[in-house]
Each structure stands twice: as structure tokens, then as C-alpha cells.
């Protein structure tokens, strides 16, 4: 029988993940008292339960029982190959967690009368041993619900080798500010601007005319070659250090032409790499149109 321990930071999407795993055929039990996990496994083994896949939701609501988790997991090893277990840890950046709590107007389970930030800080300390032992770590800071579902399907349905790093390529405009969650920021304003070319101003880097204009310059190709080489160097090192989320931001003046084109080209180059998950976003691509410019 296969058991998946679904855990992680409150607000990172554990309840959503449990619903998705239920749709994948897992028998899901949320917030089962930790001392009862061993009893559940023993009962299931003894009576040859038909259910062969079980997801157990565990979080800080387990209170003092959380300290027993390591012993419980160690105890499951006595069943040998008949019982396997994996740990899925859902995480998110502190700022994202605070925002989610404020949007739902809920209190953090460990905050008490203190600020949400203090509850999150305490929770990270209490869950540190589970994150360290996790087989899969998914940072949901930048993930949409459908993207989280896609990542879970890769792991639990397609049985793909999963790396815990998720890379977001993000185009933006400097005049709207540098994205606060950027890990790497690249400035492509050194390239000629299609904004000043007749007939190109209203188009975007998703249009072939803009792509042809930007990519006609040798400097654009040289930039991508050097950036790709740097990323290929950094990725294995980020993975070995346990980094879960990498945001590569590429900016031009308005975030509509050059940055979009080069972000798309970088995505094409990195697409298909099995070392990490990958997505692309164009933060400011439509802002000029909204402002009537």
C-alpha cells in the first residue's frame, strides 16, 4: 500500500492538493491524529484493504503530536515493501502566505494574539524536519490552481522524475517597477526599441513582426546564449542547495516588446528540460493599451 503524507505551510494549498489527490484515486484523510497513523496502517494491512493509495493530511494543527511524526514514519519501515510512504511538502513565500491570510480574513493557527508573520515564523520552525525529509517540495507562490494540479499529476500519475525547483520566466516594464519576487533581473533596454518604428508600436512581443524586428540584431542572440549558459550553470547549484522557486525577470521600458520577445525565446530554449518545472508570464504586456498609449 502506498501512503503520501501531504503537509506544509498553512495557506500554501494543502487542502487544495488533497482534493486533487482524491480525484487521482487516493483515499484522503485530513488531520488524522499522528498517533493513529500506525494503527491505520496496521488495520489496512491486516484486513487487506482494497484501497491501495492513501493521502494523509498533516499540519501544525496536530499540536504536540507533531513531535511524534519521525517515530511514526520510522515505525512504518517494519512493514517492508508492503508499505511505502512519501512526503509532499507544500510551501510558499512568507509575503504570499500573509496576503492569502488577509484575503480570506482567517487567523494563522499559531499566531494567537500576535501578527500573522509571527505565526508563520513559528510554523516554519515546527515543520522544518518534515521539509528536510520531504520527497517532493512544491512552492505554490507563483502557481495557479491548474498549474499545481499539473505538477501533482507529473508526480503521482505520470510517475515522472520530479525536481523540486520551479522556474518562472517573467517579462516586465521598468516604468512599472521591478517585480519584487525576482531572483534574477535582466535589462534588455540595450536593444533598439520597436516602439519608435512606424507600424510596430501597437503590437507586442507575441506578434511575429516584433519578434522578427528584435531578433534581427546579433546582440539579441548573444544575450540569449550568455543568459542560457548562466542559467544552465546555476540550476544544478540551486537544486543542490534546496531552492524551490526561481523567478527570472527580463525587463524593457514598457514590458511589451523587447522583454516579451526575449522571455519567449528563453522559454523555448529551456522548455523540455526535465530538471525543473517551467512557466512564462508577461506582467505588463497590456498596460500601455489599458492606459490608452
From TrEMBL:
InterPro entries per record: P-loop_NTPase, RapZ-like, RapZ-like_N, RapZ_C
Single GO term (MF): ATP binding
Alphabetical UniProt keywords: ATP-binding, GTP-binding, Nucleotide-binding
Positions contributing to ATP binding: 8-15
Domain RapZ C-terminal, residue spans: 167-285
Binding site for GTP: 59-62
SUPFAM superfamilies per record: P-loop containing nucleoside triphosphate hydrolases
Lineage: superkingdom: Bacteria
Transmembrane helix listed as a keyword: no
Domain RapZ-like N-terminal: 1-159
UniProt cross-references to PANTHER family, sorted A to Z: RNASE ADAPTER PROTEIN RAPZ
Name the UniProt record assigns to this protein: RNase adapter RapZ
Amino acid at each position: 500500500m502506498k501512503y503520501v503524507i501531504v503537509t506544509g505551510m498553512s495557506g500554501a494549498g494543502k487542502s487544495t492538493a488533497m482534493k486533487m489527490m482524491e480525484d487521482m484515486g487516493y483515499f484522503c484523510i485530513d488531520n488524522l491524529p499522528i498517533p493513529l497513523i500506525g494503527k491505520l496502517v496496521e488495520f489496512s494491512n491486516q484486513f487487506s484493504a482494497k484501497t491501495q493509495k492513501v493521502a494523509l493530511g498533516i499540519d501544525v494543527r496536530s499540536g504536540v503530536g507533531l513531535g511524534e511524526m519521525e517515530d511514526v514514519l520510522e515505525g512504518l519501515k517494519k512493514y517492508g515493501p508492503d508499505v511505502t510512504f512519501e512526503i509532499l511538502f507544500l510551501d510558499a513565500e512568507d509575503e504570499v502566505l500573509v496576503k492569502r491570510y488577509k484575503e480570506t480574513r482567517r487567523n494563522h493557527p499559531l499566531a494567537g494574539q500576535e501578527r500573522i508573520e509571527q505565526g508563520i515564523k513559528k510554523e516554519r520552525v515546527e515543520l522544518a524536519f518534515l521539509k528536510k525529509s520531504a520527497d517532493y517540495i512544491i512552492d505554490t507562490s507563483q502557481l495557479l490552481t491548474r498549474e499545481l494540479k499539473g505538477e501533482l499529476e507529473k508526480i503521482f500519475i505520470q510517475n515522472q522524475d520530479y525536481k523540486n525547483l520551479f522556474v518562472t520566466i517573467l517579462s516586465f516594464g521598468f516604468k512599472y517597477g521591478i517585480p519584487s519576487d525576482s531572483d534574477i533581473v535582466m535589462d534588455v533596454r540595450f536593444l533598439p526599441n520597436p516602439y519608435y518604428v512606424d507600424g510596430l508600436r501597437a503590437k507586442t512581443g507575441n506578434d511575429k513582426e516584433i519578434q522578427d524586428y528584435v531578433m534581427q540584431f546579433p546582440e539579441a542572440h548573444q544575450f540569449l546564449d550568455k543568459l542560457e549558459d548562466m542559467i544552465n550553470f546555476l540550476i544544478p547549484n540551486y537544486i543542490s542547495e534546496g531552492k524551490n522557486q526561481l523567478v527570472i525577470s527580463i525587463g524593457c521600458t514598457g514590458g511589451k516588446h523587447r522583454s516579451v520577445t526575449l522571455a519567449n525565446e528563453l522559454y523555448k530554449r529551456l522548455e523540455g528540460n526535465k530538471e525543473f518545472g517551467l512557466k512564462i508570464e508577461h506582467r505588463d504586456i497590456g498596460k500601455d493599451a489599458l492606459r490608452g498609449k
